[in-house]
Amino acid sequence: MSSATSVSSPSTKLYGGQAGRRVTVRDLAAAKERGERWPMVTAYDAMTAHVFDSAGIPVLLVGDSAAMVVYGYDSTLPVSVDDLLPLTAAVVRGSSRALVVADLPFGSYQASPQQALESAARFMKEAGAHAVKLEGGHRVLPQVEALVSAGIPVMAHLGLTPQSVNVFGGYRVQGRGQSGDELMADAKALEHAGAFSVVLECVPAELAKRVTGSLSIPTIGIGAGPDCDAQVLVWQDLMGLTERPAKFVKKYFDLAGEMDRAVRAFADEVTTGAFPTAEHSYR
C-alpha cells in the first residue's frame, strides 16, 4: 500500500484513534458503516482544544454557544462571524487530530447561498476550519448545496435550532406529532443536498432513532436519546460550570467547585503571606 493511499484511508478507530492526521468526513462516514459511536465536544480556545484533542475526541465544534459561555449573552443570536473567527483559529491551532467544525452564526447565511458561501469561506480561509455547521431544513437546502459544491463540508442541525428560539417561543422539544414527519423529511433532504452529518437537538428519542436508521450519514444527538451515531455536549456543561444545565446534560466533573476551592486557597495564602515562598521566588 502506498503512503498516499495510507494517508487517505479511514482510520480504524474514530474515538481515541492514533494521531498522525486529521479526522475527515470520510472517517465519520466509515464509522457510521461500522456502527461505531463517537463523541463531539465544543471548544473555544487553544488550551482546552489541546486537552480534548489529546483525549482522542475526534470532532471539535466551535459553537455559536460561545455567545453565552464566552461572551456572556443570554442566547446565541448576538455572536458574529468576526466574534467566532479567532476562536475557531485558536481551536485549530490547539488541536492536531480532531476535525474542527465552525458554526455559522445567526445572520451569516440565511439571506442567500452567496452569503453562506462568503461566510463559510472566511472560516475555512482565515481560521482553518475543516467544516461548517448551519441550522434549518428545507429552507437552507440551497445554501447547503452551494457550500458542498464549493468544496465546503456541511454539518446540518435540526430539531431545537437555537437561532430560531424566538420563533419556537423558548427552548422546547421539537418533532412531536406531525412535526416529526417534517423533521424526517428535512433530514433526508439535507442528506441528499450533500450534508455529511446532522445534529438532532431536543427531539424525542424514538424519532431520533428512526432518523438515524433512515440516513446513511451520521446523526449527532444532543437531548435526542441514545440511538444517534454520536453525542455532543457543550464542554462547560459536562464539566459542571453551568449553573442550570438542560435535562439532557450529564455533569462529569464539578469544575466550578474545584475552581472555587482553588482560587479561595490562593487568596487565603496571599492574604496571610503564605504565598509566595522561597520555592516560588527567584534569586
Name some characteristics of this structure.
TIM Barrel; 283 residues; disordered N terminus; alpha/beta; single chain; 42% helix; 8 strands; 2 domains; 13% strand; 8-stranded parallel beta barrel
Describe it for me?
It comes from Thermocatellispora tengchongensis. It catalyses: (6R)-5,10-methylene-5,6,7,8-tetrahydrofolate + 3-methyl-2-oxobutanoate + H2O = 2-dehydropantoate + (6S)-5,6,7,8-tetrahydrofolate. Keywords: Cytoplasm, Magnesium, Metal-binding, Methyltransferase, Pantothenate biosynthesis, Transferase. The chain is globular and about 65 Å long. It is built from 12 helices and 8 strands. The protein has 2 domains: 25-252, TIM Barrel (Alpha-Beta Barrel); 256-283, no CATH class. Helix 3 packs across helix 5 (81-94) and helix 9 runs parallel beside helix 10. It is of the alpha/beta class and 283 residues long. An 8-stranded parallel barrel has the order 1-2-3-4-5-6-7-8, surrounded by 7 helices.
Order of helices and strands: HHEHEHHEHEHEHHEHEEHH
Strand order of the biggest β-sheet? 1-2-3-4-5-6-7-8
Which percent band covers the strand fraction? Answer: 5-15%
CATH superfamily of the largest domain: Phosphoenolpyruvate-binding domains
Secondary-structure arrangement, i.e. CATH architecture of the largest domain: Alpha-Beta Barrel
Level of helix content?
40-55%
CATH class wording of the largest domain: Alpha Beta
Overall SS class: alpha/beta
- The span between the termini is 58 Å
Uncertain segments of ≥5 residues (pLDDT<50)? 1-8
> Can you tell me the number of structural domains?
2
Number of strands: 8
The whole-number mean of residue pLDDT values reads 93
What best-fitting shape do the alpha-carbon axes yield?
A: globular
Task: Specify the biggest β-sheet.
Answer: 8 strands, parallel, barrel
Oligomeric status of the shown chains? single chain
The Cα radius of gyration reads: 20 Å
CATH topology of the largest domain: TIM Barrel
